[in-house]
Write a structure and sequence with these properties.
The relative contact order is 0.14. This protein has five helices and twelve strands. The strands form two sheets. Strands 1, 2, 3, 4, 9, 10, 11 and 12 form an eight-stranded antiparallel sheet that branches. A four-stranded antiparallel sheet has the order 7-6-5-8, with no helix packed on it. It has 295 residues and is an alpha+beta fold.
Amino acid sequence: MAKGRRRRLKPVKLWKELPLLFGVALLLALVIKTFAVQAYYIPSQSMQHTIEPGDRVLVNKLTPWFGWTPQRGQIVVFRDPGGWLDPSLVKKDNMVVGAIKQTFTWVGLLPAGNEQDLIKRVVGVPGDVVECKGVGSPVTVNGVALDEHTYLYKDDGGRIDDPSQAAFGPITVQPHTIFVLGDHRSDSGDSRVHLQEKTQGLVPYGNVQGHAFVRIWPLTRIGGLGTPSTFSLKSPAQALRTAAEAPPLLWGFTLAVPLRAGVLRRRRRLGGLLPAPAGVTNRLRRRLGTERPLG
């Protein structure tokens, strides 16, 4: 019986494979950049020393697709709500260089340095009341003073920026907006500067690109961009209000567990102190001389 012939696989030439690989890589890069994560180049000083000019950060763009909303303390990248950026300060490249940069940024091979994007820290979310009474006073959120010494800008002499160089507020953050401040307060055109404008200094959710979560460049500054602990603090009134708003079933379990544990402890204690009923009866009979003989 004749053996079937085996077909030899012809090697694919590299020059034919490269266009396909490049096309797949380009498609994946566009999907990742559009829906997941994008690198941003930071040209300004408004977030020093948390983020220095020239740093590259990664921004999580996936979260807004899953109902994420900005939280206090997070660093977010957002489009100019209108009038925040000075057009005269925008650096313009010649037509060829600009086209190359735009193309490489579009496919995700260069970090975005879009002149229409800004980066700041979220201080107030919808319903919050944000205020500062001027130099020497802290920024307060719902009456709670923020402790910002860990991230506010320090000059070469170690002096920390004032939380604000001028009084502002109280400003109530409207639904679907956020109130933002830069960490370099003396060099940041943030919500404080735009309170008198149509937007009242607030950034709409729709303008938020995502939140920056890590520095990736330069290598000596790689690190996470977490949320400072001061943003988790609550006043006694807020804590009481939060507790009052808890579901009744949760309150029921909260009260039932210690009550039930107390009952069980009491039963064990009494069970250890009192003899069994039969033993009590026999002892009383012996003492009274009425114990009946066993028969």
